[in-house]
């Protein structure tokens, strides 16, 4: 089991007298900036002048600067812009302005691990990655709790990078829940694998395959949606709070027996073999290079066309209709 660290293992005093610059004020940016500020850290937010988030951040009591000025002011600079834009932001505004002994921080390892950002050797480079969306990082902090987070050191120029990264993690509240040490390689590769094979790619294709099977056999799309898509949340919520055992305790014995008989016929040895291939293509950079060239040369032609085609699948049409009947869902 990986070792967990808590507030008592972190020295938040290491951030005293330092300025932490948060670049970006989106999902993660607003949570990191506000939590650190409430933890007594001197925070500056870096945004484009045109950003609609400038007002929001100022209203929350934060100091807002142009990205390049915020970088120049930072002893620690956390880059919280979308990953596919981070390399451009780094080249244009971070690299030319970063203090020589500063610490550069990320919340995801992609750009460092796949060499899209190559930091100067005279800075520290580390990661602090909460395992939850920004609004949870903020709301948990306000309730006196935290979201478990990962941290990793890529470059330890000062000799203090690990301690500083842990202090930052504690500053955003993660030390209340648990902080786990990893590497940029492990975080990046497991994150990509999870979202592709299981969470996003795996789940949506499984749902669509089930939906299509029922509809092609003549059952109504509404029934197919309820059974193969809608009820997923129920099951996942049970697993999330109590593991497979709690889910199986809650479902009927018939459902549990069917689970044991059929699961392995759906996720077969073939599927597991393909998962290994997917992992290999993440490890050897095949996926990263596809995604990077999609963003650069291809102008996202394939990505955007696929998004449009996916939105046209019947499961999306019937789902939109049925969700209108569910008054508890946020519009
Ligand atoms: P968001 O898409 O929410 O961040 C958007 C912010 O980036 C906005 O403030 C936006 O500015 C700013 N931005 C975009 N382009 C530029 C630019 N060219 N120059 C300056 N600022 C720019 O990102 P997330 O918070 O989702 O992700 C940030 C990092 O956190 C990523 O590395 C991600 O992998 C990681 N992460 C995200 C999690 C999540 O739950 N979302 C969970 C864990 C890690 P503007 O205000 O002008 O629009
Ligand atoms: Mg990811
Ligand atoms: Mg059922």
From TrEMBL:
Chain ranges of the KARI C-terminal knotted domain: 183-329
Necessary cofactors: Mg(2+)
Domain of life: Bacteria
EC main group: oxidoreductase
Matching SUPFAM superfamilies: 6-phosphogluconate dehydrogenase C-terminal domain-like, NAD(P)-binding Rossmann-fold domains
Catalytic activity: (2R,3R)-2,3-dihydroxy-3-methylpentanoate + NADP(+) = (S)-2-ethyl-2-hydroxy-3-oxobutanoate + NADPH + H(+); (2R)-2,3-dihydroxy-3-methylbutanoate + NADP(+) = (2S)-2-acetolactate + NADPH + H(+)
Gene3D superfamilies: 6.10.240.10, NAD(P)-binding Rossmann-like Domain
Active-site positions on this chain: 108
Annotated substrate binding sites: 252
UniProt-listed GO biological process terms: isoleucine biosynthetic process; L-valine biosynthetic process
Cofactor: how bound: Binds 2 magnesium ions per subunit.
A single GO molecular function term of this UniProt record: isomerase activity
KARI N-terminal Rossmann domain sequence ranges: 2-182
Pathway the protein takes part in: Amino-acid biosynthesis; L-valine biosynthesis; L-valine from pyruvate: step 2/4; Amino-acid biosynthesis; L-isoleucine biosynthesis; L-isoleucine from 2-oxobutanoate: step 2/4
GO CC list: cytosol
Residues engaged in binding Mg(2+) 1: 191, 195
EC number(s) on file: 1.1.1.86
Role according to the record: Involved in the biosynthesis of branched-chain amino acids (BCAA). Catalyzes an alkyl-migration followed by a ketol-acid reduction of (S)-2-acetolactate (S2AL) to yield (R)-2,3-dihydroxy-isovalerate. In the isomerase reaction, S2AL is rearranged via a Mg-dependent methyl migration to produce 3-hydroxy-3-methyl-2-ketobutyrate (HMKB). In the reductase reaction, this 2-ketoacid undergoes a metal-dependent reduction by NADPH to yield (R)-2,3-dihydroxy-isovalerate.
Protein name: Ketol-acid reductoisomerase (NADP(+))
Organism lineage: Bacteria, Bacillati, Bacillota, Clostridia, Eubacteriales
């Amino acid at each position: 089991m990986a070792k967990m660290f808590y507030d008592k293992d972190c020295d938040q005093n290491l951030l005293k007298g330092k300025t932490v610059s948060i670049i970006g004020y989106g999902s993660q940016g607003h949570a990191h900036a506000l939590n650190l500020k409430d933890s007594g850290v001197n925070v500056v937010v870096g945004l484009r002048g045109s950003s609609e988030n400038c007002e929001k951040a100022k209203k929350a009591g934060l100091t807002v600067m142009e990205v390049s000025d915020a970088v120049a002011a930072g002893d620690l600079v956390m880059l919280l812009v979308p990953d596919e834009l981070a390399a451009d932001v780094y080249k244009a505004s971070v690299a030319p302005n970063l203090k020589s002994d500063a610490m550069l921080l990320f919340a995801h390892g992609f750009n460092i691990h796949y060499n899209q950002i190559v930091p100067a050797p005279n800075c520290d480079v580390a990661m602090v990655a909460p395992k939850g969306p920004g609004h949870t990082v903020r709301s948990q902090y306000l309730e006196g709790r935290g979201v478990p987070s990962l941290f990793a050191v890529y470059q330890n120029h000062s000799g203090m990078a690990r301690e500083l990264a842990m202090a930052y993690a504690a500053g955003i509240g993660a030390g209340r829940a648990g902080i786990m040490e990893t590497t940029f390689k492990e975080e990046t590769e497991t994150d990509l694998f999870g979202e592709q094979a299981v969470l996003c790619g795996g789940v949506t294709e499984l749902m669509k395959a089930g939906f299509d099977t029922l509809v092609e056999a003549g059952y109504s799309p509404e029934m197919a949606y309820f059974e193969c898509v809608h009820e997923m949340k129920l099951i996942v919520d049970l697993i999330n709070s109590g593991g497979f055992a709690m889910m199986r305790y809650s479902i009927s014995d018939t459902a549990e027996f069917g689970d044991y008989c059929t699961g392995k016929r759906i996720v077969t040895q073939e599927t597991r073999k393909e998962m290994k291939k997917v992992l290999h293509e993440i490890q050897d950079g095949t996926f990263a290079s596809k995604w990077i060239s999609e963003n650069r040369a291809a102008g996202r032609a394939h990505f955007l066309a696929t998004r449009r085609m996916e939105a046209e699948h019947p499961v999306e049409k019937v789902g939109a209709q049925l969700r209108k009947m569910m008054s508890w869902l946020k519009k």
